[in-house]
Amino acid sequence: AKSAGGNRFELADPEADARAITRHGLTTALPTALDRGEFFIEYQPLVHLGDGSVRGAEALVRWLHPQHGVLSPDRFIPLAEHTGLIVPLGRWVLEQSVRQAREWRERHGGAESLGPLRINVNLSPCQLTHPGLVQDTVDILERTGVAPDALCLEVTESALIGADDDLLKPLRRLAEMGVDIALDDFGTGYSNLANLRRLPVSVLKLDRSFTQSMQQFPADPVDLKIVEGIVSLAHSLDLAVTVEGVETGAQAEQLRILGCDTAQGWYYARPGPPERLHELALVDATG
Ligand code: C2E
Ligand code: CA
Ligand code: CA
Ligand code: CA
User: Where in this chain does the record put each EAL domain (predicted)?
Assistant: First the structure.
């Protein structure tokens, strides 16, 4: 820290300056990054808690920036939302991911024991309000020949809090077509649980904070009750429960006992290239 007596300008936080400069630089570079092919997608497996089989994967976008290296989505998704690039970027992620799902399915065609791998793709709130969402999704599924039920779109709970019918209409259309809708980061948004009945969702993705509280064995009794309550409510509404951020076997075991259906986290695999998912699924099927 700067000692007293320095002038006001010297008192500025140099790290904050660096962050602001980087943010400005990233915002400037963002619009052309898509055309330059600087984005890529990693896939993280979704594992069935009951039998440990790989059921699919979540697509997670990264930016390979020519100067800064690989940037995590938390660094650039907010900028993409702010500049509007999220619409073409989100469409690109959707198309790449669905193509990837088709490739997995084709490569798995010969292996009887392998169930069809599904693909989860994140949707930003800006994409929800964009009028092209339903048509873009239909076009991508038709172009790739992938069935709608192989796709799950993840929308955060906070994006749907207080959502009116106009916002829900495109999600309803997609759900009617057979696309699954998952409520991401569930449990962080203080939404009215009764509200769940209004939403066209078929999966709850329990936020990582719940998984973290399962670190101790036995876990905090209040957290156990909360998760137990969410799972029983979800199942009574015919919703599946996915847990994220599973880092240890103890967490997986607790969450399995609590009745959660599917899990995702470093305990199973970090996000990685698409070939990795194919290998994991194959190993899984052959024992
Ligand atoms: P999210 O949808 O909640 O994704 C889960 C995040 O948790 C990912 O971070 C994933 O890498 C991380 N994760 C997975 N397993 C573990 C674990 O065991 N422990 C811990 N500590 N973390 C784990 P990531 O890849 O950095 O993505 C961050 C967020 O960026 C995502 O959160 C999502 O909201 C957003 N995002 C990623 N890809 C896209 C995209 O294509 N479109 C949009 N709109 N948002 C995206
Ligand atoms: Ca997600
Ligand atoms: Ca999440
Ligand atoms: Ca999250």
Answer: 23-285
Q: Would the pTM of this model clear 0.80, i.e. be above it? A: yes
Closest residue (by CA) to atom 17 of ligand 1?
245
Cα separations (Å) of 72 from 64, 226, 281? Answer: 9, 31, 25
Task: Provide the b/e sequence for 214-238 (b: ≥16 CB within 10 Å).
Answer: beeeebeeebbeebeebbeebeeee
* Res 204 pLDDT > 50: yes
Measuring CA to CA, which residue among 66, 283, 257 is closest to residue 268?
Answer: 283
Which of 122, 126, 157, 262 has the most ligand 1 atoms within 8 A of CB, as the residue to mutate?
122
Nearest ligand atom owner, CA of 272: 1
> What tens digit of pLDDT does each residue of 62-102 get?
999 999 999 999 999 999 999 999 999 999 999 999 999 99
